[in-house]
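Submission sheet (multi-component)
Chains listed below:
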Amino acid sequence: MTANRATRPEIVLRGLGVSPGVGWGPAVHLPRRGRLVFRRSLAPHEVDAEVARFQTAVAVAREQLQALRQRMEHALGREHAYILDAQRLMLEDAGILGEIEMLIRTNAINAEWAVKLVTDRILAIYAEIKDDYLRERGSDIEDVAHRLLTVLVGERDAYAFPEGAVLVGETLPPSLLGELDPQRVAGLVIGTGGWTSHAAILARGLGIPAVSGIHGALALIENQALLLVDGTQGLVFVHPAQEVIRRYEEQQKERERRWLLLRERAPLPTTTSDGVSIIVRANIERLSELEDARHFGACGIGLLRTEFLFLQAAPELPSEEMQWRAYRQVAEAAGPEGAVIRTVDWDENQMAALGSHRALRDEPLVRTGMDDREPWIHERNPALGLRAIRFSLNRPQVLRTQLRAIVRAAAFGNLRIVLPLITRVEEVHEARHVLDAVCRELRAEGFEVPDRLPLGVMIETPAAVWLVEELATAADFLSLGTNDLIQYILAVDRDNDRVAHLYDPLHPAVLRAVHHVMRAAERAGLDLEVCGEMAAHPLHALVLLGLGVRILSMRPRAIPLIRDLIRQCELARVRDLAQKALTASRGIEVRQLVLRGLEEMHLEVFDEALLNGSAPPPRDPQ
Amino acid sequence: MQRRTVQVTNRLGLHARAAAKLVHVANRFQSTIALARCDNGQTVDAKSILGVLLLAASAGTYLDVIASGDDEEEAVEAICRLIESKFGEEGGATS
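Outcome: structure written.
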């Protein structure tokens, strides 16, 4: 690696920084279908067994396809099932199978690698085909290869890659998300997907630097090339020059020094300089982050995202038992401040990507005008589709299972429930109805059920903003989910790097919506917690405090920084600042206003990089 | 050996579903069956789905169907009929 560093010219790629920080290491490609395959040489006596293993895998894959075809034929009719015939025939193709077996024997390599070699060769031929439609059929071969490799590797096999690697892929397959370990992954380079993609949220939660929007990342970056990922600025250096690495190393040292300082101040109370107490909680993506929450001084869990359970259980649905165990762990770890558990925020496309939609087939379905076909239909616009609370209410059994698990776990700590993507008051009433029924049931079964389990509403759609008075009557508390709220108010998909620069948390429309919700919460005497990236960003958090927010929930790693900011700021002055911001007409004005305010108040924000990097700054129009 | 030339006329050409049908038909016969593109001579095994797909025979392509074996005549006949019938997928309508 060092040998070629001197000879290879440095290439700088610009993307979207989706998880701040810097990391460097050798590039490891993630294949498009997300199966990492490695070459393993066999001893002569292992070869026969390996061929047998391959033949067994082919048989299993064939059976899977056959079963899938029958279901498809039943659901969609014979014509559509033919598409699977092509795949089944590939698994019966003596030419392909023979070639793979021959490779295993002559090269003495593992079956996975042989499958990869042969399918890669075929795909390369496909890529050359002039006819668009036929060229696209390469996806059939990819599908077959993926199915075979999945059988060979075993459904739940951990990904193996060298320690300290930078993972490079067009997208990060969901099955890989659970395997990310900051101890082993130095950084991520993602072709498509942005700030709010699962990969980005998880990377931020784990503190893994990540850059997305590097289109054609796999083609641009060869395997094993040394990469430096600057997730703060959104830069990827391929074969970075020696002095670039040195510069980053120095920055890293400086950051560590400041980080230690922040940690020393951690025991101090979270109180503004004029004596107002602010509550800072943690957003949790997965159970391993509970330790981080405690470590960074979180005051309870402001948001537990439960999608990880569905990821882990895929292609099955998470059982009540499995969920209950997880929630109990959260309840016990959260302490007296407790935890807010969000019902699954998920859409059926995501379920389908995991294969979990098959498990849904046997679940009762509330008719929503869909016909009797396969209950799952690929949605063209999942952000506006059957997701979050709509999904849960449409799948009463899934919701009941999740609520039963939460209620049972509530005996072990202070738990609250929050409903995502509410747009109608009826949704809150319906969910409460299910929750009451579940509580009655569990009592009848002899479980210890708390007298009262607070039910909250996520304010993350414009509809919820304008209905906030009514929702405040129906709910026990309010939680402002800024990620989705900003996307829906500004009609910007932050995962689309062509418009990501228009995603601006300081847009006056966003601030006025927050202001409206805050006042309604105050009038109703309800807690309003802000969870979402906005709370974790120093500039944005300052404005939130000025607008009256007193509870912020954020990724654990951001807690020390924000608490330090709170301790420095004088709330009266921040309030004036926020009042001015409400009258601004452009996001850039608000930004400049807040930056000036920081200067005048002599606030020291610890990581300038975070100021500039953890959200794309709005472009200043000429 | 039997050989006959046939033109692919269905709109999508030898796409996945059509190729699957063709392989399915070819596998009913004992004879070895090959398909060859008349324009560049590329020749594949008609019993191999990948081979047939890799022909990338889009609409308008002329193919030679070549069979040799005990049932070579029936084989060529059946495969040409399948291709000429547009794989039974366009309801006979030309587009």
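Remark: Confidence is low (pLDDT under 50) at residues 91-95 of chain B.
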